[in-house]
Amino acid sequence: MITVNAPLIYVVDQGDSVTDYAQHNLIDRRDTPIFCHIENGAELLIRLTHCLDGRLPDLILLATNTPIMNGYEVLQVLKKDSVFRSIPILMLVDTTHERVIKRCFELGCNGLIQKAKNYSNLVNAARMLSYSN
User: Which residue ranges does the record assign to the Response regulatory domain (predicted)?
Assistant: First the structure.
């Protein structure tokens, strides 16, 4: 059941496996988060600047390797903007290489989730949002 107070989570990634996994594992929750799958960084910026969902998301899951505008570029833009900088952003990374981790945190991300390995962390983050709303 989706309620007005349900957390809104943007998932910015080329594929929809992250969104599918999270939705499948949260289906029985009373305040199931609303997941909005976005294919690329440019589409995310359009959705945010035009407030296409009528509100800002409670969380953005942002892949580093998105087309058109990669996740690093998007993260940098969002964290420099006074309207968007307070939105928590978890980066979806393919590797835990020190260089990647350092770059994400230097640009202002709030955390990392390694794709295909730590999707349970994604579900836990979504559950915490449900309880805080």
Answer: 8-130
